[in-house]
UniProtKB/TrEMBL annotation:
Matching SUPFAM superfamilies: P-loop containing nucleoside triphosphate hydrolases
Pfam families per record: ABC_tran
Species assigned in the record: Geomonas silvestris
Protein name: Macrolide ABC transporter ATP-binding protein
Residue ranges of domain ABC transporter in the record: 8-236
GO CC list: membrane protein complex; plasma membrane
Length: 236
């Protein structure tokens, strides 16, 4: 998919979770547009729909209604949905994901964890790239350690390296500094800011950390499944 000058456009997205007879309206009509090179932060209280929204934007989940467009192409909506094959391609080529709990594989070393997407997508010659990223993140001296042998902040940096190894256009980060102290969180913030500034990486980040949210050029607040920007409802 050609994504030059793309934007990611959500229109009236809703997501209802069903558990037995119970229905939870996690998203209640979110419309927003994210452009290439932006650094956007989503803030809001627990349960306000941040993870739900970021998963939808990252094409990892299907909305209950509404539309999502990437680079002018409909991912969901208008009665259409991108095919499984194309969805897989978008997930692998356009997005890099940092999940709320990092999901490092405990039996693989730092180096192997970062290389995992390369192996998974059968990309050869990624060894240098893995080393380059780990070096950039100040983790080259921990390459052969297991996740259980490094600190929380270091695990977070490994998760960032892994999310970047496929050279994504958009980095989706769900609480990239969750559970970290101020100093470590600040370090992650510096890395993300630098990536956005120097390589124009688009970053969409969920955070509870006000200092981290401050680093992003744009701040969107989630409240009860709705998105607010500058006190107004977010529009396209
Ligand atoms: N798989 C699911 N099944 C049912 N309900 C869910 C599911 N996932 C999330 N929810 C509910 O949807 C709402 C939004 O959840 P979401 O995970 O998006 O919140 P969040 O803003 O990311 O919260 P946190 O800051 O705690 O991570 C919550 O009420 C949550 O309990
Ligand atoms: Mg969440």
């Amino acid at each position: 998919m050609t994504t030059n000058g793309w934007s990611l456009q959500a229109r009236d997205l809703t997501r209802v979770y069903r558990r037995g007879s119970e229905e939870i309206q996690a998203l209640d009509g979110v419309s927003l547009s994210i452009k290439k090179g932006e650094f956007v932060s989503f803030v809001g209280s627990s349960g306000s729909g941040k993870t739900t929204l970021i998963n939808l934007l990252g094409c990892l989940d299907n909305p209950s209604s509404g539309e999502l467009e990437l680079a002018g192409k409909t991912v969901f909506g208008k009665g259409k949905r991108l095919g499984e094959k194309e969805l897989t391609q978008v997930r692998r080529e356009v997005f890099g994901y940092i999940f709320q709990n990092f999901y490092l594989i405990p039996t693989l070393t730092v180096q192997e964890n970062v290389a995992l997407p390369l192996a998974f997508f059968r990309k050869p010659g990624g060894e240098e790239e893995v080393e380059r990223l780990l070096k950039m993140l100040g983790m080259e001296h921990r390459m052969n350690h297991l996740p259980g042998q490094i600190s929380g902040g270091e695990m977070q940096r490994v998760a960032i390296a892994r999310a970047l190894v496929n050279s994504p256009e958009i980095l989706l980060a769900d609480e990239p500094t969750g559970n970290l102290d101020t100093k470590r969180a600040g370090e992650i913030g510096e890395v993300l800011t630098e990536l956005n500034r120097s390589s124009g990486l688009t970053i969409v980040m969920v955070t509870h950390n006000p200092e981290l949210a401050q680093l992003a050029g744009r701040r969107i607040e989630m409240r009860d499944g709705r998105a607010f920007e500058n006190q107004e409802g977010v529009t396209t």
